[in-house]
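Homework-ish question, so no full write-ups if that breaks the rules, but can someone show me the predicted structure for this set?
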Amino acid sequence: MGMDRNGSGAKPSEYLYPPELLQRLDFSKSPATFKPKISAAQPGEDWMVVRPLQRSDYDKGFLQLLSQLTSVGNVSQKQFDERFTQMKQSGGYYVTVIEDTRIAKLIGAATLTVEQKFIHNCSLRGRLEDVVVNDTYRGKQLGKLIVVTVSLLAQEVGCYKMSLDCKDKLIKFYETLGYKLEPGNSNAMNMRFDDPS
Amino acid sequence: MGMDRNGSGAKPSEYLYPPELLQRLDFSKSPATFKPKISAAQPGEDWMVVRPLQRSDYDKGFLQLLSQLTSVGNVSQKQFDERFTQMKQSGGYYVTVIEDTRIAKLIGAATLTVEQKFIHNCSLRGRLEDVVVNDTYRGKQLGKLIVVTVSLLAQEVGCYKMSLDCKDKLIKFYETLGYKLEPGNSNAMNMRFDDPS
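A: Not a homework solution, just the prediction itself:
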């Protein structure tokens, strides 16, 4: 019973956003230094691919990867599907992943969200969210790769700026990628309503 | 030529989100202190109303109000209409305003944006954006009123937390409303791509 969504003969799994967007990113525009040079189109290993989230990624360990970052809870396939559909309908969600195609598992992820504004001539503002890399893949510049990918993507889709909140220990990392603490204006504050499960 | 969109006999101007949401907010849940007590439903003056952005607010000085906050540029009525429509279609945009109904002008505004997540059981995260109050209306607690309104709204629509970025001089104000700098994790960084017009 049921269809094998990823089986041979099935049509390719639906993308959250057009994968062509990632192929045209110009990594020479980023202040980040890659040694050796890699990019979203050429991530450095032939078994690695950088691409938008796909509906089939529930089966490729997407939530297990996120749980290395923070609590995820028990998200069913149905919940995942619904959220995927809602994000796609809303627009402005660019969840981006790195897959190890040898084992069909996701090993890195970062999200660009795009907020519509009235200010600055009805501009768009990007935000970097939920960055995670499987730490058994150290030394492959994957953290840098996934962050630079979605940062260039923000510019590609027309954002006037890209923002992030981070812990103290990550400031230097993000500075090497072009992010700045703006003097007198760099405070991230939160109000928490519930203990998330 | 053309219709008077606000003239007598015209149907009420379209809201960005259901105004009923604001009527049911429980201001006793906020740690903010109001003297005298006011709320979104009872803002303290009979000529004042707190409500969602309406399509007719282009003619009530919405963009002029925002220009007290930052650059807005020359946004035409068509551009405003398109952005209003896009926000409504996307969902998750709660632009909220205070009107002085005696002169049919907006005197305060703040935006809640709601971001869909996979983490924390497919949770929602709120953000406070673009807070502005006309400073000729000092002493009426309007800054506090509009921020508490959208903060309670975030909880009402199911966000697990609400976030904001702010300048150093505003930290104390936001602390009185329940926002916190989380030790070691309160850095807001930005990368700017273009000089916005």
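Now go work out the reasoning yourself. Hint: The two ends of chain A are 32 Å apart (CA to CA).
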